[in-house]
Amino acid sequence: MTELDSLKKVTTVVADSGDIEALVKYKPQDATTNPSLLLKASQMPKYKHLVDEAIEYARKYNGDKHARSTAFMDKLAINFGCEILKIVPGRVSTEVDATLSFDIEGSIEKAKSLIGLYEKAGIPRERILIKLGTTWEGIRAAEQLEKGGIHTNMTLLFSFAQAVACAEAKVTLISPFVGRIYDWYKKSKGVSDIPIAEDPGVLSVDRIYNYYKKFDYKTQVMGASFRKVEQVKALAGCDLLTISPDLLEQLASAQGEVPPRLTVEKAKAANIERIHMDEKTFRFMHNEDAMGTDKLSEGIRAFNVDGRKLEAFAAGELAKASAA
After folding, report:
1. For this structure, is 25 an active site residue?
2. pLDDT for 36-78, tens place per residue?
3. Residue of 110, 131, 214, 295 marked catalytic
4. Is residue 112 classed exposed, middle or buried when 0-12, 13-18 and 19+ CB atoms within 10 A define those classes?
5. Are residues 250 and 244 in contact, defined by beta-carbon separation less than 8 angstroms?
6. DSSP H/E element including 223
7. Which domain holds residue 140?
8. How would residue 143 be classed by pLDDT, with cut points 50, 70 and 90?
């Protein structure tokens, strides 16, 4: 048995990729995309038909150049999402633009628009996760969306305060970023590596998982942003793990068993104190976490850069189509 097959027995494996061929190869349950992955996939000749369809949709859209570029980006995300859902049996995550990270109403409006496009394409909302940045405003938007039957995936999650607030908001899923936490502490300590037993990213997900299971929160934990396969295996048993194609390949190429490291039984036995997370507590507790504060801000900036690259690509494609 490969390590990937063994891992799938204890954890739902999600592919962190917009490449359809990678999904066919590794057969994950779910998949997740972001503007960077969409931009990369859009420039592959094999996906030109998805780009062309988004161009035609945007050209008919009423509005200025910015509005048409936004329409192109939204339609492109839905086109890739629909293709992905032909391969994976579960769900696909589609991201709300980073510029809405501090805009509750804007995030809700965009999420509803994306769900509407999916439903017009014949995809039920149960198969879609709307991905939002885990700011206080993002969490509040997710809470309202969940009440309306739209499921959410909270991304850029680094601090325990973020995780607790998401659980209390009853979001569907959170994506704590193991690798980015590891990167911050590695740089902070001035070291080239951190042993798995001491890996702050792994320990963060372990803590969140145990807290959720101890107090019977329904929100699922999906470890994300892995740097090495050892981090993935250290979190076997987590609800979900979203894994890049290169690490999926390593797991698929290695023979062996991956035993569960996280279990509900261990979580129930843990000595954990419950926390209530109002806005004041959230903002102070998150601010006390230097890593979490740094990485959330940095992540929003980076996601915005990716989004603007995709927007520039959209504008270029529309200009070329108009000239033709």
Report:
1. no
2. 888 888 889 999 999 999 999 999 888 899 999 999 999 999 9
3. 131
4. middle
5. no
6. strand 220-223
7. 3-323
8. very high
